[in-house]
Model the fold of this input.
Amino acid sequence: MGGRVVVVTDSTAYLPDGLADELSVRVVPLQVVLGGRSGAEGSEVTPAQVAAALAAWVPVSTSRPTPAEFAAVYREALEGGADGVVSLHLSRELSGTWDSARLAAAEVGAGSIRVVDSRSAAMGLGFAVLAAAEAAAKGGSREEVYAAAVGTAERTTTLFYVDTLEHLRRGGRIGAAQALLGTALSVKPILHVREGRIVPLEKVRTVSKGIARLEALAVAAAGDGPADVAVHHLAAAERAALLAERLRGRLPRVRRFYASEVGAVVGAHVGPGVLGVVVVRH
Done:
């Protein structure tokens, strides 16, 4: 490990299975509480469990890792001979996770640790993590790894469709999307992440129109150049497969294409049926 920059993230990056281990990324889990039972996201609480709980309107809440949890990971990396740490997290507008990481970095050694607010979540965070990990694997300095992460985050578009705003409203995560509440139940929102916040973008009337608009918006975000794309869902595998198939057909210059279910933390706030697309323009 000596001489290398260690990349740390949290469990909301939703990296494809095995990729974190392959790239030596340390993942610090958030906690999820399902009807009074608490567990670590991913290892102890699965997307399927969250989808089932939400469908049954069982209370679902989430909590950030403690600064001590991050500090332990940072210390282990630095004591193991790492040159530094770059720690990337979901938007500070959506969670206190970034703040826990910042406090831990100040305690352990701020000069050795850079903490990044991805201003997003899911693969909106995950692609920045991959860029950082690849820069680290090539022997990049702490500043080079940090720059790779920030540059990727700045080129990322995160879009998603939800069946209902109710879960976002209950979790207090919708900000400007409050404006959509009280509209006809037949209206289904398309939202995006802007400056770290979830905000409304458009309204559609049906699931099929929602999928079609996500497709068009993703194609526009990718532009004519190469791009990386991820499709996310929660308990909506068929919708996700359909959208992924359409995007593959329309984006011939995609470099990397991932499809995965969102985990418990994001799932708890958007609800079953969510369909998301993350595009990184190169």
